[in-house]
Design brief:
With 496 residues, this protein is an all-alpha fold. It has 19 helices and no strands.
Length: 496
């Protein structure tokens, strides 16, 4: 017999707690621009050379198309569970549940690693190199960082937004200083490396060609991931239903400008040789460049990466926790995950669960090796591509009766999201094929005969299947839902 499940609490998330700027800032911080650039610029240049800015531009295209899907779906269904809710309405509960699971697991996979980067770069920025090299001290501070940022999430969205504003301002200011000095030294001829003067040809991604372009685009998808955190706050943002959707779209545009500006500066100052030779240094490559460009002022860039990773530690918890809340409200997860803190009006139970699982995951993989942590991050590309692509398809299916009502609907709600989903599906297939070869992992080792990132991805899918079937046997309420279409009234009401 199915378990008796009580209805979730009637009190909801705190409405009108955030404005457009707050949602935009949280969307930007969730992508962790400085950290993302530090993580991918070396490998990206190693793959595509001076075409790195062009590949960043090309990677922006599927993100913008999927952002359009988020915008239009949010106009007719303002649910903090975003993709979970939309895919369920368009494609049914089974596919919807898996999309929610994918989002929740992204937070679990990455939060610990983000906190780790924040701690190490923060220690280096203030001159505590010995602490940064001490594994015990670093891991203790990682736990502390996750707990503090989780507490900020629970205390309230206003507090979170205030912290995020401070962190994004510091991050962008540091990046701008670094880029400006680098470009100045290129044109002044004082670069300490083999500098190259920027050229418009760098914006042509096709110059990379073939397999190199595919690998570069996969890295490009990672650097844009996270902007949709703005849309997860839809129930807490003041104004019409379109506000959080617009914040998500604009965050992708701001990210594009940031990445192109800093990307041009880095490639111009360092040249392809230095970046390729140090591609294996991961995030540390930006620290090396900071010393070359700024000398004793390199702490500016170190602090930018630290604040970037710290901000993303907090904002990455938002979509995972609110997706779990949305799933629990519709009986897709145990009702305890739907609890709203009576004072702070935030999903405290689901937030702490995400943080706890993230800490556990980080420590388990850290015991295996540091390379296993990098392989875990690589597995993120699978989850990102899955739920972004599902969102694009869900948009087309849910609006299917309205696609031919206008050219705008046909292009922005139909062709655009479907094209974005197709591009991401192609990248997903390419990624799986690449990860099947153990040599393509950070560790270069095999788990069960294939690369660790693919094992992690399959493991997440299998564990999700087990949890879903187990909960389906206990409570079948969610699985009684049936797919639907956007009603004419909702579409007209969402046109504001």
């Amino acid at each position: 017999m199915a378990a008796e499940v009580t209805d979730p609490p009637t009190s909801g998330l705190k409405a009108n707690a955030l404005g457009f700027v707050d949602a935009l800032v949280i969307g930007l911080n969730a992508t962790s621009p400085a950290y993302s650039l530090a993580a991918v610029i070396g490998p990206l240049v190693a793959l595509v050379g001076v075409c790195a800015p062009g590949v960043m531009l090309a990677s922006f295209v599927p993100m913008l198309l999927i952002a359009s899907a988020f915008y239009y779906l949010n106009k007719v269904d303002q649910d903090c569970g975003t993709t979970f809710s939309w895919v369920t309405r368009a494609m049914g509960p089974w596919v919807g549940w898996f999309s929610g699971w994918a989002i929740a697991m992204t937070g679990v996979l990455v939060v610990g690693s983000l906190a780790d980067v924040a701690v190490r770069f923060g220690l280096l920025a203030i001159g505590l190199d010995g602490w940064a090299a001490n594994e015990v001290a670093c891991q203790a501070l990682v736990v502390l960082a996750v707990l503090v940022m989780t507490a900020v999430c629970v205390v309230g969205t206003e507090a979170s937004a205030w912290v995020q504003r401070v962190l994004i301002l510091a991050q962008v200011a540091f990046l701008l200083v670094f880029s400006a000095v680098a470009i100045y030294r290129v044109y002044a001829g004082t670069s300490s490396l083999d500098s190259i003067r920027p050229a418009l040809e760098w914006l042509n991604p096709l110059g990379a060609g073939g397999a190199a372009l595919t690998g570069g685009l996969l890295l490009g998808v990672f650097i844009y991931w996270g902007w949709e955190s703005a849309v997860n706050l839809t129930e807490e943002v003041e104004g019409p239903a379109s506000v959080s959707g617009k914040a998500g779209v604009w965050s992708t545009v701001v990210l594009l400008v940031t990445y192109l500006s800093v990307g041009f500066a880095i490639v111009a100052y360092a040249g392809t040789g230095f970046l390729t030779d140090n591609a294996g240094e991961e995030e540390a490559i930006l620290a090396l460049l900071a010393r070359e460009v700024l000398g004793e002022w390199d702490w500016v860039v170190l602090l930018a990466v630290a604040t970037s990773a710290l901000a993303s530690t907090q904002t990455t918890i938002i979509p995972a926790s609110r997706t779990a809340l949305s799933m629990a409200r519709r009986s897709a997860l145990p009702p305890g995950f739907a609890r709203i803190h009576p004072r702070f009006r935030t999903p405290d139970v689901s937030t702490w669960w995400v943080a706890g699982l993230a800490i556990l995951w980080h420590f388990v993989l850290n015991q295996i090796s540091s390379n296993a942590l990098f392989d875990s991050l690589t597995a993120l590309s699978l989850l990102i591509a899955v739920y972004y692509a599902l969102t694009g398809v869900a948009c087309v299916i849910y609006y299917r009766r309205h696609l031919l009502e206008s050219l705008r609907n046909f292009l922005l709600i139909g062709v655009g999201p479907l094209t974005g989903a197709g591009l991401l599906t192609w990248l997903l297939v390419e990624s799986v094929a690449d990860m099947a070869d153990p040599a393509n992992s950070y560790s270069g080792t095999a788990w069960f005969g294939i690369a660790p990132p693919l094992v992690i991805g399959i493991g997440i899918a299998v564990s999700g299947l087990i949890v879903m079937i187990g909960w389906r046997l206990r409570c079948a309420r969610f699985w009684s839902e049936r797919p639907g279409v956007a009603s004419s009234e909702l579409v007209r009401g969402g046109e504001s």
